[in-house]
Each structure stands twice: as structure tokens, then as C-alpha cells.
Amino acid sequence: MGITRDDRTTHRNRTTFALGGDLPVHRLGFGALRLTGPDYWGPPHDRDKALEIARLAVDLGVSFIDTADSYGLGSSEEVLAEALRPYPDDLVIATKAGQCRPRPDQWVPLGRPEYLRQQAELSLRRLGLDRIDLFQLHRIDPKVPAAEQFGALAELQSEGKIRHIGLSKVTVEELEEAREQITVASVQNLYNLTDRHTDDVLDHCTEHGIAFVAWLPIARGELSAEGSPVAAIATELGATPSQVALAWLLHRSPVVIPIPGTSSATHLKENMAASEIVFSEDQLARLDALGRPLG
Ligand SMILES: NC(=O)c1ccc[n+]([C@@H]2O[C@H](COP(=O)([O-])OP(=O)(O)OC[C@H]3O[C@@H](n4cnc5c(N)ncnc54)[C@H](OP(=O)(O)O)[C@@H]3O)[C@@H](O)[C@H]2O)c1
């Protein structure tokens, strides 16, 4: 059962979540996909600016950063390491493996166990870590038995190379199948105010205390653009549409960790202030209605 609106109002000031039960993170995270070059294919053109954004995120209170081996073919992880080492004690860097990039416009699931192991080793090196706090399977590869992919993650965990395991882009059925074999600390799915097609997964995560990392939390900028469906409520609150979109996610469930991505210091500051927003019951009802199919 999902939590009710009353629960959400009660939970509104709870801005941290204990990932995997033992890693408290500020629930407004940061997505590091955009700390890369064009098409997320290589290093950022303006490396100093990317380093500055990563440092600013942490200065503003971000303690959960999402990246992947495939973001810039490793460049995102390299930028994070250069910007943030020695890492603050409370910083969790979550990375992923399981998608390869044969060309800039291609993201192809690749879940062979030996590849997942290799990518974990490369991420450890690039990030300069002895252990990855959260290692997410970017996609379940349909060409490889799921049990082999989960088995590779379990092996890395038992060897101490990764602390917690997460999944990405999964259904409730896939999550439950995985949970028969491994302990899943997080699920990362596309979710925002206007695209709630994985509502059932979020409710399931809420029920089981699994972190739900919401990717595309501001719909690739659509929710901040002119004519945003949340513009009127933003005006009422003296906030920006992006802040409303992010604050709604924080209110939606105490397990949600939105990971907005930005390459702009101004937007980053704006986004981090979203955790201060408190909605009235009427505003929450209007925002909730935006995601429901009409009729
Ligand atoms: N698991 C997966 O398969 C998967 C897939 C996609 C993404 N992700 C993760 O999700 C994270 C977020 O995804 P995303 O960056 O594509 O989407 P997003 O966070 O929904 O939107 C980012 C876009 O919104 C703009 N933006 C951000 N803050 C803004 C603000 N305050 N005002 C106006 N515009 C703003 C950004 O432009 P500016 O740079 O100009 O701010 C950028 O164009 C990624 O970094 C990645 O970690 C995961």
C-alpha cells in the first residue's frame, strides 16, 4: 500500500533517507550525466565548469550523486573523482554498469557477468574507491539469464567491492525476482510529476523501504520550461516550476530520491532550495491530479 497524503504532509520535513538501512543521504540528489561532453560521449568541453558544478553540489548539501560507467564513457566518474577527492565522509556516489556505448547514439544492455565485473573494477579505479557504496545494474539484459546478472552483483558484494546493490528501469515483477536472490537497496526509474507510469514500482518500494531514485525528475527540463503545467502553483508559492516539480517528488513518498541533472550553477542552487517548499493540501491535490489520465 502506498502512503496517503496525510502521511506525506507528516513526512515533508524528512529530508534524509537511510540507503540500504545504513547510509543516510539527503533526499535531493544530483545526476552527473551532464558532467560530460556532447551526446554524453566523452569528457566535458569545459572541464573547470564541470568540476565547479560537482563541488558546488556537495557544498549545497548534496550527499547522493548518481553516475554510470557509460556516462561520457567514464568521464563523469573521472570528473567526480577529480572534483571531490578526498570524498566527504557522508557522500554516497552511486554508479551503474550494464549498458555499453558502441556509438554516441546507442545505449545497449550488456549484462554478461564478466563484463559487469570488469566495469565494477574500472569504476573503482576511476572513482578512486576501495568499495562502491551503491552499484546499480543499469539494465537487465534480456539476452543473459537474470540470475547470472544478479549473481555477478552478489559476488562483487561478497568480495567487498560494492556495498549495496540497485536496479534500474525495472517492473515490480523484475524487482521481486531479483529480491529472491539479492538484497535490493534501490530502484532507479523514470518518474516525474507528469510521467508516473512506474507508480506501482514506487508504491512497492515505499512498502518495502527500498530507495526509489527518480530519473528525469524535471522531465529533461520540460517541467521548467515556459508553459509548465506547474507554473501557476509555482507563482502562488513564489517558487520556480523546477522547484515545484522536485518538491512534489519529495512529498510523494519518503523513499524518493530525485536526481536532477544540470550543468548550470544557477539551476543547481535553485533545485537544492526545493526541499524548503511546503504545499497546502489544495496545492498537493492539484499537483497529484496532473499525473492522472483524464476520464
Ligand atoms: N537510469 C537511467 O537509465 C537514467 C536515464 C537517464 C538519466 N538518468 C539519471 O538521471 C539524471 C537526471 O536526468 P536528466 O539530467 O537527463 O534530466 P532532468 O534532471 O529531468 O532534466 C535536466 C534538464 O533540465 C534542465 N534543468 C535542470 N534544472 C533546471 C532548472 N532549475 N531550471 C531550468 N532547467 C533546468 C537542465 O538544463 P541545464 O543544464 O541548463 O540546467 C537539463 O536540460 C541524470 O543525470 C542521470 O544521473 C538515469
Keywords:
38% helix, binds NADP nicotinamide-adenine-dinucleotide phosphate, 295 residues, TIM Barrel, Aldo/keto reductase, disordered N terminus, oxidoreductase activity, NADP_OxRdtase_dom, two-stranded antiparallel sheet, 12 strands, alpha/beta, eight-stranded parallel β-sheet
What are the segments in which pLDDT stays under 50 over at least 5 consecutive residues? 1-13
Distance between the termini: 24 Å
Question: Approximately how much helix is present in the residues?
Answer: 25-40%
**How many distinct domains?**
1
Described by strand count, sense and barrel closure, the largest sheet is: 8 strands, parallel
Q: State the strand order across the main sheet.
A: 3-4-5-8-9-10-11-12
CATH structural fold name = TIM Barrel
Task: Please tell me the overall pLDDT.
Answer: 93
Task: Work out the strand percent.
Answer: 15-25%
Keywords: Oxidoreductase
Pfam families: Aldo_ket_red (PF00248)
Domain NADP-dependent oxidoreductase: 27-290
GO molecular function, one term: oxidoreductase activity
Kindly describe this structure:
- By secondary structure, the protein is an alpha/beta fold.
- It has one domain: NADP-dependent oxidoreductase domain (TIM Barrel, Alpha-Beta Barrel).
- Helix content is 38%, strand content 17%.
- It is built from 11 helices and 12 strands.
- An 8-stranded parallel sheet has the order 3-4-5-8-9-10-11-12.
- Helix 6 (172-179) links the parallel strand 9 and strand 10.
- Residues 1-13 have low confidence and may be disordered.
- NADP nicotinamide-adenine-dinucleotide phosphate binds next to helix 10.
- The site of NADP nicotinamide-adenine-dinucleotide phosphate (NAP) has 26 residues, from helix 10.
- Residues 27-290 form the NADP-dependent oxidoreductase domain.
